[in-house]
Amino acid sequence: MALSQSAQEMIATQSAPPCASNVGVTPAGVAHGSPTLLDTIQAVAGCFDALALSLPIAGHQRHAIVAAQYAVDCRRSLWKANPELAARSLGASLVHLGRLLASGGELKAAARITQEGVDVSRAQAEVHHDDNLPELASWLIDLSARQSECRYRDRAIESAEEACRLYRRVAGNSEGQWLDLLAASLENLGVRLSESASMDAALEAMHQGMRICRDRAHGDREGTQARLASILTRTGEVLRASDRSEEARPLIQEAIHLWRIRLPKDPVGSAPGLASSLSALSDVLAEQLQWVDALAARRESVEVYRLLAGVNPERFEYELASALHRMGRQSLNANHVEEAIACSTEAASMRRALAAGGRDDHAAELLRTLELLAEALNQAGRRDEAEKIREEGAVRHRRLFEE
Predict the structure, then answer these.
(1) Which among 347, 352, 351 is positioned nearest to 376, based on CA atoms?
(2) Cβ-defined contacts of 194-200 (< 8 Å, 24+)
């Protein structure tokens, strides 16, 4: 299994415009501006939104956050001047800024900004009723993710449940065009419930989403097949966490089959899902002590993540480091000590670079990888090297908790 050269080029060439620093428009004072000025600010905000979308693909995450913040500032000013015109675009800009902040580790700021986007959309929904409900439901799914990242579990579930209610309402008034999004909201709800250890309720939500997707996938709707593959994987992960690995395995295997079918048609969209499903299958197989098959699935997952990270490191290096760490642990459990050393060494190198960005979660993950590497080196009889790694871990541990 490999991503084609055309797929890699498709991602790699999605670069950002070279610069926006010469756009000399300041949003302050726009509230009482002329229609021409308002139109200009609207256009500038759109440029900043486009930059915020494209810069992460080119590996410029921090610049994307700056661009998104400028877009939000512009749209806030437009909203003050004309709430009816600017509310929808302001909500979208706020939610996207929340996503970028979350990916940069600024979790509480991301949750706060996303909540603002939801509040703007909710106000519009009160005026326009059903016309704004799909947008509000979409932003609520984002909000539930941001709340979950901050460990606001109850709030995350409430937001996810509201999104499901809204999509049910919209789907009930349509000919099925919103059913795929209802399935996505049910998947999201299942994930949030599982994070709070409400496993039975989580599985019920996911099974509802799965039934919707199966009914709609009969028409060979490619988007629905992708959603089904995602829900199958998530359901398998919840079953595994509930000590029901035998039930989890066929669902995840079905998901992998669906991703492989989609891969030639949509390598960019399908490869991340395939890698995630392979990782989930490896976890299930490892629990069943089927080390050979578990490692085979993990190796393929690492291969896919490596290809993705090669063309979009900003998005996939973290996933690759995590996959290498897990492969190192499984290799050690299977007594493949040299492979464990190679994987954990590479994972440690990547996580050192990630931890240099100052995020505590990346620093904590590096500590776990250093512990694994020291264990593998010790089993190989390379005790001096193992001791040096332990010393590094001890220094980093003190630094993390002192700070």
Answers:
(1) 347
(2) 194/237, 194/238, 194/241, 195/148, 195/153, 195/156, 196/153, 196/154, 196/157, 199/238, 199/241, 199/242
Q: Write out the two tokens for 107.
A: 């979790």
Q: How far is residue 8 from each of residues 11, 14, 24, 27, 332, measured CA to CA in Å?
A: 5, 10, 36, 38, 32
* Residue numbers of the domain that contains 93: 13-18+25-105
pLDDT(7) > 80 = no
pLDDT in tens, 54-102: 887 766 778 899 999 999 998 998 888 888 778 888 999 999 999 999 9
Tell me, yes or no, whether 350 lies in a domain: no
Cα–Cα distance for residue pair 311/225, rounded to 1 Å: 25
pLDDT-based confidence at residue 26 (cuts at 50, 70, 90): very low
Helix/strand/coil for 306: helix
User: Over pLDDT 70: what percentage of the chain?
Assistant: 87
The residue behind tokens 């997707």 is: 213
In a domain, 210, yes or no: no
Which of these, 318, 329, 260, lies nearest to 291 by C-alpha position?
A: 329
End-to-end Cα spacing for the chain: 44
- Taking the complete model, does pTM exceed 0.70, yes or no? yes
**What is the domain count for the chain?**
1
pLDDT at residue 3, rounded to an integer: 45
Residue-averaged pLDDT of the chain: 86
pLDDT of 108 reads 94
Q: Is residue 378 part of a domain?
A: no
> Is 288 domain-assigned?
no
**30 pLDDT above the threshold of 50:** no
DSSP string, 335-394: T-HHHHHHHHHHHHHHHHHHHTT--HHHHHHHHHHHHHHHHHHHHTT-HHHHHHHHHHHH
Residue 171: CA count within 13 A, CB half-sphere = 17
